[in-house]
Amino acid sequence: xxxxxxxxxxxxxxxxxxxxxxxxxxxxxxxxxxxxxxxxxxxxxxxxxxxxxxxxxxxxxxxxxxxxxxxxxxxxxxxxxxxxxxxxxxxxxxxxxxxxxxxxxxxxxxxxxxxxxxxxxxxxxxxxxxxxxxxxxxxxxxxxxxxxxxxxxxxxxxxxxxxxxxxxxxxxxxxxxxxxxxxxxxxxxxxx
Length: 192
Description:
alpha/beta; Rossmann fold; 8 helices; 36% helix
C-alpha cells in the first residue's frame, strides 16, 4: 500500500486541504492519504495551536466521509519537536509493507534543503508536490529529481490563519470549512 503523508497543524483543517488531498489520491498511485496532525512544528509558535486532540477531531470529522483519506495522530507520542525524518523512520518500522510518500506544497519544496536529513528522505521516499503561489525559487537539485513528482491540482489560496483571523472578527467562514468541522468549531467557540 502506498500512503501519502500530508503533514500539518490543521488549525483548522479547511476545504483547501481536502481538495488537494482528494485530487492527489484520485490522480496518482497513492492508495490513501493520512493527514498527520503535527503537535508542534519547529517553525511555528506552539501557543497559537488548539489542543492536539481538538485538531485531530476536526481532521477526523473532515475526512470521515472519504474512504481514502484518514486522520493520523502518529506524531503525538514521538519526541518533540517532531521532525519528518523521525516520523518516516518510525512509520516504516511499524508498517514495513507500506510505502510512505510525502505530500508538500511547492513553497515547502523551496526550503526543503533546510529540513533535517532531507537527503535521507529523498533517498527513501517519493515526494508529491502541489502548486502554491510563493516567492523564491526551487533549488536546482530538486527541479528534475526522480523522487519528486509535481502534481496538477487547483491552487488553493485559503489558509488556516486567514480563517482564524476572520472568525476572531466575527466573519462568516462557513464556506471555507467542511460542514462537520464548521459545526464543531461553532459548537466549541474556537478562535473567537
